[in-house]
C-alpha cells in the first residue's frame, strides 16, 4: 500500500515575527493531513523548541528541523547585513542536501516548498530541484506590493538601485492605496546604508523568485487592505492567521511566556489596562526607557508592560528611582507575555505597540485601540494604517530631542481612552477582520483553494 503523504517544507526567516505566523500556517496544513517539515535556523530552532513545553500541541505530521545560518554561535544576529549575507552563502546548499536526504529516507517525498519571502533563495532552490513552490509573506500586503514594485520605484526616481530613497515626496502605488514616505520603505529604515544595500539586494533576488510562484500568500485580510489586494490581484490574503482564531495556543515563541499576568488581568476592572509590548526586536535607549516608565506612572491607570530581555542595550534594565514602590501592584511587568491571550482579555483598554504586523493583526482581531510607537522596517507603514486609514489609534511622536515624553504618553492615552471613536473603529475593524476567516470569508476561501492545490497529488508526485 502506498503510504506516501503530501509533504511540504515551510521555511521562515529567523525572526520572531516571521516564525510565529508561518508556524501557525503550517498547523493549518497539518490539520488537513499534510505533512510539514518546518525548518528553522539552529539558533531559532533551539529557542522555539525550548519554550515549546507541550509537545502534544503538535501532530506527528509536524517535524521541526534546523539548518545552520552560517554565523558562529556568538555572532550578532541583530546585524541584519551580516545575517543576510551568511544565510545566502550557507543555507541554499544545506537545503538542497536536506531535501535530497528527505526524499531518499522519508516515506513521503517533498512535494512543495513554502518559503517566507525574506528567504526567497529557498524558492530558487525549489525551482532548480523542480519542486512546486509557494511564497508566504508575514507582513502587510502593501509592504509586499512595495517590494514587488522595486523596479517602478527606481524608474520613478523614488529610490536608487541600492534601495536608498532619493527624496521625501510621499507616493502611492496606485491612487487608492496607502500613501508611503520613501524613508518608510521597509528596507530603508532597518539600519545604515550598507545594511539597506545588502538587504535590498536580497529583496530584489527574492522578488524575482516570488513572481514566478503560483501562490503569493499574505497574512492579511482583503477587508484590511482591499485597495492593495485589488490592485495586486496576484497577492492572496489568507489572514489573520492567529492561533486565537482556532482557539489554540500561539506557538513558536523565542522566550518563555509568563502566564501569571493573565491572573493579574483577571483582577483589573474591565477595559482599564494599558498593555505595552514592543515585539522581539525593538531596542530603546535608557533615557527613553525611563521616560516610558514615568509616562505609564503618570497615566494613573493599571498597566501590563513587557520588558523583554534586551529591550535596552544595558545588560540589566534600570527603572527610575523608587519606581516599583510607587506603581506597586498597579503595574505588572513581565519579560514575555502570552500576547494573543492578553489582547483578548476584557480588562485590556489599549495597546501601546511598536506596530509589528503580527501585533497589529492581533490588536485588530481583538478590537483593541492602539498607541503607535514604530521602531523600524514596515512598522511605520503599519502606523499609517492605524492612525490615518483605519483610525483605531494615535501616534506617539518624538520631540525635537528625539524623545517620546512621559507627558505625551499620558495625554495621548487620555485622548485615546476618552473618545469612543477609536474603540468604535477598532470594534468595527475587528468584525471585518474576523469575517474574512469565517466560513465563506475571503481569506478562508483562498486558504482552502491553496490546500486543494497542494493536495493535488497527481500534479506533483510521479507514479
Ligand atoms: N509576542 C508575544 N509576547 C510578547 C511580545 C510579543 O507573544 O510579550 C508575540 C506577538 O504576539 C507577535 C510576535 O511576538 O505574534 C511579534 O511579532 P511582531 O510582528 O508584532 O513584531 P516583531 O517581533 O517582528 O518586531
TrEMBL record:
Lineage: Eukaryota, Viridiplantae, Streptophyta, Embryophyta, Tracheophyta
Similarity remark: Belongs to the UDP-glycosyltransferase family.
PANTHER family documented for this protein: GLUCOSYL/GLUCURONOSYL TRANSFERASES, UDP-GLYCOSYLTRANSFERASE 83A1-LIKE
SUPFAM superfamilies, sorted: UDP-Glycosyltransferase/glycogen phosphorylase
Name under which the protein is recorded: UDP-glucuronosyl/UDP-glucosyltransferase
Organism: Cynara cardunculus var. scolymus (Globe artichoke)
Gene Ontology MF, one: quercetin 3-O-glucosyltransferase activity
Pfam families tied to this protein: Glyco_transf_N, UDPGT
Domain Glycosyltransferase N-terminal: residue ranges: 4-124
InterPro entries xref list: Glyco_transf_N (IPR058980), UDP_glucos_trans (IPR002213)
UniProtKB keywords: Transferase
Amino acid at each position: 500500500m502506498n503510504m506516501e503523504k503530501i509533504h511540504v517544507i515551510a521555511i521562515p526567516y529567523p525572526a520572531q515575527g516571521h516564525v510565529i505566523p508561518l508556524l501557525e500556517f503550517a498547523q493549518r496544513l497539518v490539520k488537513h493531513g499534510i505533512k510539514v517539515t518546518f525548518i528553522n535556523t539552529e539558533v531559532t530552532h533551539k529557542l522555539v523548541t525550548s519554550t515549546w513545553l507541550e509537545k502534544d500541541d503538535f501532530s506527528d505530521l509536524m517535524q521541526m528541523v534546523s539548518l545552520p545560518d552560517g554565523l558562529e554561535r556568538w555572532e550578532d544576529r541583530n546585524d541584519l547585513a551580516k545575517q543576510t549575507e551568511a544565510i545566502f552563502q550557507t543555507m541554499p546548499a544545506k537545503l538542497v542536501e536536506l531535501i535530497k536526504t528527505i526524499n531518499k529516507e522519508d516515506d513521503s517525498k517533498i512535494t512543495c516548498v513554502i518559503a517566507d519571502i525574506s528567504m526567497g533563495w529557498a524558492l530558487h532552490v525549489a525551482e532548480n530541484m523542480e519542486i512546486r513552490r509557494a511564497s508566504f509573506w508575514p507582513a502587510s500586503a502593501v509592504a509586499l506590493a512595495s517590494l514587488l514594485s522595486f523596479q517602478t520605484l527606481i524608474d520613478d526616481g523614488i529610490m536608487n538601485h541600492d534601495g536608498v530613497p532619493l527624496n521625501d515626496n510621499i507616493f502611492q502605488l496606485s491612487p487608492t492605496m496607502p500613501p508611503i514616505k520613501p524613508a518608510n520603505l521597509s528596507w530603508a529604515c532597518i539600519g545604515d546604508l550598507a545594511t539597506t544595500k545588502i538587504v535590498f539586494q536580497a529583496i530584489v533576488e527574492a522578488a524575482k523568485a516570488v513572481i514566478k510562484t503560483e501562490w503569493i500568500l499574505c497574512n492579511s485580510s482583503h477587508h484590511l487592505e482591499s485597495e492593495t489586494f485589488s490592485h495586486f490581484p496576484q497577492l492572496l490574503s489568507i489572514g489573520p492567521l492567529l492561533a486565537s482564531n482556532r482557539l489554540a495556543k500561539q506557538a513558536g515563541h523565542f522566550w518563555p511566556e509568563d502566564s501569571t499576568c493573565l491572573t493579574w488581568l483577571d483582577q483589573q476592572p474591565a477595559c482599564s489596562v494599558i498593555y505595552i509590548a514592543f515585539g522581539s526586536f525593538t531596542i530603546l535607549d535608557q533615557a527613553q526607557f525611563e521616560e516610558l516608565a514615568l509616562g505609564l506612572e503618570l497615566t494613573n491607570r493599571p498597566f501590563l508592560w513587557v520588558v523583554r530581555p534586551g529591550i535596552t542595550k544595558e545588560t540589566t534594565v534600570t527603572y527610575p528611582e523608587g519606581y516599583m514602590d510607587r506603581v506597586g501592584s498597579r503595574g505588572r511587568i513581565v519579560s514575555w507575555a502570552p500576547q494573543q491571550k492578553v489582547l483578548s482579555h476584557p480588562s485590556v483598554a489599549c495597546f501601546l505597540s511598536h506596530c509589528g504586523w503580527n501585533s497589529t493583526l492581533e490588536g485588530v482581531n481583538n478590537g483593541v485601540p492602539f498607541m503607535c510607537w514604530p521602531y523600524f522596517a514596515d512598522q511605520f507603514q503599519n502606523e499609517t494604517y492605524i492612525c490615518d486609514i483605519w483610525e483605531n489609534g494615535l501616534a506617539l511622536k518624538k520631540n525635537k530631542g528625539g524623545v517620546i515624553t512621559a507627558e505625551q504618553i499620558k495625554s495621548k492615552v487620555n485622548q485615546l481612552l476618552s473618545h469612543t471613536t477609536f474603540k468604535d473603529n477598532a470594534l468595527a475593524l475587528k468584525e471585518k477582520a474576523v469575517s474574512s476567516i469565517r466560513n465563506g470569508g475571503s481569506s478562508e476561501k483562498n486558504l482552502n483553494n491553496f490546500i486543494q492545490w497542494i493536495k493535488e497529488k497527481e500534479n506533483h508526485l510521479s507514479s
